Structures are given as structure tokens and as C-alpha cells.
Amino acid sequence: MRALPAGMGTAAPGLPNLMISFAAAPGKEALDRSSRVPSHSPFTAALLRVLSAPRRLIDVAPFLTDEVVADTGGKQQPHVGGSYGVSAGNLVIGA
Amino acid sequence: MEVAKNDATRAALQGLPAPAPSPTPAPPRISPKEAAALRQQRIEAQQRRNQPAAVTPTPPPVDTVPADLAQLLRELSLSAHGANLVDKLGVTSVSDLKYITDDMISKELPTMKPVERAKLLAATQTGGSANTVVQSHVAAPAPAPRLRVRALVIGIDSYSSPVPRKLGNAISDATTIHEALCKLPGAHSTLLTDCSKATFEAALKDFRDGTGTCDGRGMRVTAAPKGHDETTPALFFFAGHGIQVSGRNYLVPADFAMPHRSDKLEPMLRDTERACVSLSLIEEYMEEAEVTAAALWLDCCRNVPDFLADWAQSAPQEACAPCLLAWAPPRRGCRT
């Protein structure tokens, strides 16, 4: 059952290609104030950095995790749910 | 919208006349709704022929399409390749014509049957030079896909009485994210602040349908249009209170009403759903927005907040298991 699905590399029909980045782990809280940028939360401060440069959609979440963990000293750890196909994950966002 | 880039294509598809004045009368231009009635079409053509030749033809507005192109689109949508084209180009309605880009056409033309290709070229050459324009796109290498972003951004600082603590940064976060998204090429972002559950859900519906939406003060604002292509991601950002009950996540609107206490899980969930916007609803709408990919960024807590502590304590024993009713001790400055 581990064979590659047909249509791999294109948007598979029926695959929502949706990914949720939670600011915090399940059952945990998200901080309102970043230690680096007091006018933003740690998660938003990280997201603003993500959007400041071109980045593939699939690369956004790991970047957010690194930034938020560094910002909060590990107190807050972003989590991800959902899935992208290759073509969706390769979409580039950011200025 | 990169207007300059698409002018040639749009002119081609709409049958704009060549710059040089033509001795023959301009072809009749009829909106697709009118084009559906062939008799009406004949009447208008007759009226145009009766007009004095001195009248200079004015360029058609953006929402008109030549009758033969409308007919062609209908025919194409009946064949497999045509349906694919119509679907990908999103030209089933006239207002979508403006989202057709040069590279979309050049990408699709080779996949069409020769007869369909000939028909499309024939339909687009009413302006004289249109044929050469389209053909040159087939020969030229397709440029990188143009990026368009559809985004909905929501930030809530001020809550109704059941939520005792006002957040300080949520609106600032949402506004800054909105501004950053607006700077992306081809992006359309909608910002809502301190919105009620009704406004929140209406905005989601509007985002899905690409129609107008309301801002936090009930004013009509324009939502991102639905003219997507295969590279358009949908982005959703929320900053505010969030709660997680029984493994399900909910975003708290500004007009949050305290759910009733219950010793059973089912009524608890039902009440939470009534007071909040459920994440599964948002997922559903984003999927239905017909984009290639959706990214949801939720800057909120995922526990039972302190203002719901009493409510949570009445919950059934099984709901209090960590995986069902997530509980974290309240801390200052968090988004619960």
C-alpha cells in the first residue's frame, strides 16, 4: 500500500491541497507578544519574515516553527495539519 | 492585474478592431446573454448596418464578448478538450475574460484538437491582427505563471463580556499581515477586524464565491475575485482567541456568547459551535474556493481558556482526558 499514487506530481483530484499552520501545539496557548517585536505575536512576526522573501508553500511551516521556537525559547511550538501535493506545495509566495 | 501584458490577448478574444480604419462595417458586438437569442442578434446586426458609416466604432467595454466567441465557448464546453480549456481558463462567464493571460492560452492551445484550435483562432481574428498575436504565443516559450493570491485576514482584539481579557496585538498582527499580502504581485486581500460570528462566516462565504463581503463595521468591501488560475493559492489568517474542545478547534468571534454548562460532551460541542466559528467550516469553504492550494495560518490558542474554566469543569469525565478537552493553566498575555 505504499506505492506512489497515480497522478503524483499533479494536483490529485479530490486532494484538498490544504494545510493549516497552528501557532501552537494541540492543547497549548499562543503568546500575544513576541520577545523580538513587541507589537506582534511570535507567530505573526515569523510569518511576516516568511512573506518578506519568495518561498514555496511547503517550506513555510518549517520556517515558522524555527522562528517561533527561537522567539519563545521553545514555550510555543507551531503545529501543522493537512497535506499538499507536489504542484501545490511548490507554489511560491512572498515578495 | 497586469493590464499591459494581457491587452493583446484580451483584444484578440474580444474582437477589438484593428487600429487602422476598416472600410467594412465592424462586426456586431453582443453580450453573451443577448447572444443566446439568435433572433435578437440578427435584429442588432440589422440596426448596425442601418447606422451611418461616419460613426466611428468605439471599443467594447470589458464585459462584452463577440457572439461567435460565446458560441465557440459553448461548443468547446461540450468536448473533453474544450471543457478542460473552458474550465482552466475560467471563461464560462464574460467577467472572467479579463483573467485570461497569454501563457494560459499558449499552454492550452497545443492540447486542443485541430478543429477546436482552428475555431478558437478564427473566433479571435475578428480584429485583423489577432490571429498573428495568438499564433505568436504558441511559438514563444511560455513565461513563468503569473502569481495571484486570494487572502482573507481577520484580527480580533475586543471581545464581548464573557471574554474578560482584551488582546493587544491581534488587530495589529492582522493589519500588518494584510499589508504584507497586498504587496505580493497580483494579490487581493480582505481584512476584517473585531468581527461578529455572522460577519466572519459571511466573509468566508464571500471568499469562497469571490463576491463582495463586509468589513467589521458592516461596510461593503470587495472580496478577492474568483478569477483564479492553476497557480492561485488561497490564504487565510486569523489572530484572536481560539479554543479546542474534544480535539476540535474553534475561532472565537467578537460577539462570543458563553456556552451553556453541560455534563455531556454532545451539547458542549453543539454550544461551542453556536458561539464560535469552527475550523472545519473554514476548511470546507477554502476547499470550495477552487484554488490549487490553501494555507491557513491560525495565530490563536488551542486550549480551554480561563474564562471557560467553570464551563469545562462541568464537562463529563471522559471529555476531560487530555486528548479530548485540552487544558492548560491560564497565563497572562496568551491568546486564550
Structural notes for this entry:
- The complex is a heterodimer of chains A (95) and B (336).
- Chain A is α+β, with helices and mostly antiparallel strands.
- Chain A has one domain.
- Chain A contains three helices and four strands, in the order E-H-E-H-E-H-E.
- In chain A, strands 1-3 form a two-stranded antiparallel sheet. A two-stranded antiparallel sheet of chain A has the order 2-4.
- In chain A, helix 1 crosses helix 2.
- Residues 1-13, 15-28, 52-56, 59-63, 92-99, 125-147, 213-228 and 317-332 of chain B have low confidence and may be disordered.
- The relative contact order of chain B is 0.10.
- In chain B, strand 3 and strand 4 form a beta hairpin.
- In chain B, helix 1 (3-14) packs across helix 8 (130-139).
- Chain B is of the alpha/beta class.
- Chain B has 13 helices and nine strands.
- Classes of the chains: A alpha+beta (95), B alpha/beta (336).
- Chains A and B meet through strand 1, helix 1, helix 3 and strand 4 of A and helix 9, strand 5, helix 12 and strand 9 of B.
